[in-house]
Design a protein that fits this description.
By secondary structure, the chain is of the alpha/beta class. The protein contains 21 helices and 18 strands. It has helices spanning 13-20, 24-32, 38-46, 61-73, 86-101, 122-130, 146-154, 195-209, 214-218, 221-230, 237-250, 256-264, 274-291, 295-302, 306-340, 361-372, 398-404, 428-437, 463-469, 524-535, 537-545; strands at residues 3-6, 77-81, 105-109, 135-139, 158-162, 177-179, 349-352, 376-381, 386-391, 411-415, 418-423, 449-452, 454-455, 484-497, 503-509, 515-520, 552-564, 567-578. A five-stranded parallel beta sheet has the order 3-2-4-5-6, sandwiched between helices. A five-stranded mixed beta sheet has the order 7-8-9-11-10, with helices on both faces. A five-stranded mixed beta barrel has the order 14-15-16-18-17. Helix 5 packs parallel to helix 8, helix 5 runs antiparallel to helix 10 and helix 8 packs antiparallel against helix 10. It is globular, with a radius of gyration of 25 Å.
Length: 579
């Protein structure tokens, strides 16, 4: 059973409302996002790219900038070493195109997820040396590549690391420059940048020193924004400005590849929001790195031919559809295994799916975590033994959990909420037993908490409020969409719609008698079955026919505007319910 809570943060909401010309409801939502003083609220609402921090505040960034500009002047061969996810692809694109703009002799390498694994490896380093590369520039990886950076130095290459991942216990590699805001002695004020945003900062500095107008550097913000959302970074502080400005630019992008992908996904360019970055565009760019090669996504971003861009974009869209189908099938297999083996009460779910494509193990683990609200690890056969990915809940530090069972693992890494690991097949069972035995979780840890901004009767919902709440975008990790509660909502009638009968459109009335149109995009069968169990099938039949009935439920919702046939109407979008 989920646990619903209402934020109890205090403030003078009327004063905030008067100061910024907003409603007290919106003022309360802002306060619930931990904005306290007026200056913080002003930045939250109106922050612009002029308020971004100077890139030169980042440790080693100016050193990296100077080295690269000198290498370009000397005509040295440069190579960008990226990563196969959306963040890595966008970071690679930013650095590759910027270095070419500066006159650099530059190419790139992106590891293969299956054959190479994450980050630069010895083979990549040796190949670069054999091909006469003078300088390796990493992006979205490299902070843990101590041995590989050392090897590159021994082979006569200069290495510059740009990354955003946590600093390993053994410290940073001995590179010519290490640019990562998470370094303990880095004075950069904001630590939550993604890899592409760190790359953008480096480009800002190179363009400034190279005499290229600042606006040309800002043109990369749409790519940094896409990567920030796709990499699920917190949309707070500087990230909020990066993403808001980046989305505004994406809506008018001139990038041929992005335009083709937007068209292939049937999106309205001018209506793009953070949701589309995280759940439509980003997954398409990720899909090539999961199922084929991330070089395909990079090719799309660099396309200069519209016909080729359309072909690549459609390929990526279809790859993502394949990935989604594989994820559904894999999740169904995982759930069936959990229920067949009665694992659903295990404190940590460890599911071994030998035939699962290793690139989607983490996604399936995330689905299991959402369904059962338990830390979940999915293991699958790989070229070398067994590989796995895990996703966690707030109460369980997954990396520490793996450390406690490290005797059964060959390699592992990660952070509190996610991790990757590899082990021998014969160690799967003892690893699972060890992890479960040492989990240290209590029953209350498995309760999912749903946080509401406030209880909001339907009479308070207006077109103006919906438009006002849009000013709080971009929504995502660290800046959740506003969520309101309403008790004892009466269901006057309902009808199931949608190609897959997966939408329930409702006419509802709150306890004060205010009528509204509602919509539920969740499991329609589950909701109707829940009502039938509580109120009886006859009451459900009456509801579906629009007759008088006794059905009531409590909802968590956010207000939206439904557009149909040129007409706009208010809509209560139901996110969760208590029957």
């Amino acid at each position: 059973m989920d646990e619903w809570r209402i934020y109890g943060k205090k403030a003078d909401f009327n004063r905030i409302a008067r100061e910024f010309g907003i409603s007290p409801v919106t003022a309360r939502v802002i306060r619930n996002r931990d904005m306290c003083d007026m200056e913080e609220i002003r930045d939250y609402l109106y922050g612009t790219k002029e308020q971004l921090y100077s890139p030169f505040l980042m440790k080693d960034l100016e050193k990296a900038c100077d080295i690269l500009l000198e290498k370009i002047r000397e005509g040295r061969k440069l190579r960008v070493a990226g990563d196969y996810d959306c963040d890595g692809v966008n970071a690679t694109y930013i650095l590759l195109t910027a270095l070419k703009r500066l006159g650099g002799d530059v190419d790139f390498v992106i590891p293969d997820r299956i054959h190479d694994g994450y980050g630069i490896n010895e083979e990549i380093v040796k190949k670069a040396a054999a091909e006469g590369v003078d300088t390796l520039l990493t992006c979205d990886n490299g902070i843990a590549a101590t041995d590989q950076v050392l090897l590159a130095g021994q082979l006569g290459m200069t290495v510059i690391v740009t990354d955003h991942h946590d600093i390993p216990e053994r410290g940073v590699p001995l590179a010519a420059a290490v640019v990562n805001p998470k370094q303990q002695d880095c004075p950069y004020p904001f630590k939550g940048l993604c890899g592409a945003a760190v790359a953008f900062k480096l480009v800002q500095a190179m363009y400034e020193k190279g005499g290229i107008p600042a606006e040309e550097a800002f043109a990369y913000l749409e790519f940094a924004a896409l990567a920030t959302v796709a990499d699920v970074m917190e949309l707070k502080g500087e990230n909020r400005i990066l993403v808001r400005e980046g989305i505004a630019r994406l809506r008018r992008t001139e990038n041929i590849g992005l335009n083709a992908l937007i068209q292939a996904c049937k999106l309205k360019k001018e209506a793009i929001v953070s949701y589309h970055l995280g759940f439509v565009i980003g997954p398409c760019l990720n899909a090539s790195g999961r199922l084929e090669t991330a070089a395909l996504s990079l090719e799309l971003l660099m396309c200069t031919d519209e016909n080729r861009a359309q072909t690549v974009a459609e390929n990526l869209r279809q790859l993502n559809e394949t990935r989604k189908d594989m994820t559904v099938k894999g999740t169904e297999e995982a759930v069936a295994l959990i229920e067949r083996e009665h694992m659903e009460n295990d404190p940590v779910l460890v599911v071994y799916l030998p035939d699962c494509h290793e690139s989607i193990a983490g996604i399936i683990a995330g689905r299991l975590k959402e369904k059962y609200h338990r830390p979940s690890i999915v293991l699958t056969d790989s070229l070398e033994g067994v590989k796995g990915s895990g996703r966690s809940i707030e109460a369980y530090h997954m990396f520490h959990g793996l450390q406690q069972s490290a005797e059964w693992l060959d390699k592992f890494g990660g952070h509190p909420m996610a991790a990757g690991l590899s082990l021998k097949k014969e160690n799967v069972a003892p690893f699972r037993q060890s992890l479960i035995a040492q989990a240290g979780l209590k029953e209350q840890d498995f309760v999912k908490r749903i946080w509401l901004d406030m209880e909001l009767p339907f009479a308070w919902v207006s077109m103006g409020l919906v438009e006002e709440l849009k000013a709080l975008e971009p929504f995502g990790n660290g800046n959740s969409r506003p969520l309101f509660g309403c008790r004892q909502v009466a269901v006057r009638r309902g009808r199931v719609i949608g190609r897959n009968a997966n939408v329930l459109r409702l006419s509802i009335t709150d306890a004060q008698g205010t009528q509204a149109e509602g919509v539920w995009f969740g499991d329609t069968e589950e909701l109707i079955h829940t009502w039938a169990e509580k109120y009886g099938q006859a009451q459900v039949e009456n509801m579906l026919r629009g007759y008088q009935n006794d059905i009531r439920f409590t909802i968590a919702y956010y207000p939206t505007i439904n557009e149909y046939a040129g007409r706009q109407t208010l809509q209560i979008t139901i996110q969760n319910f208590i029957a």
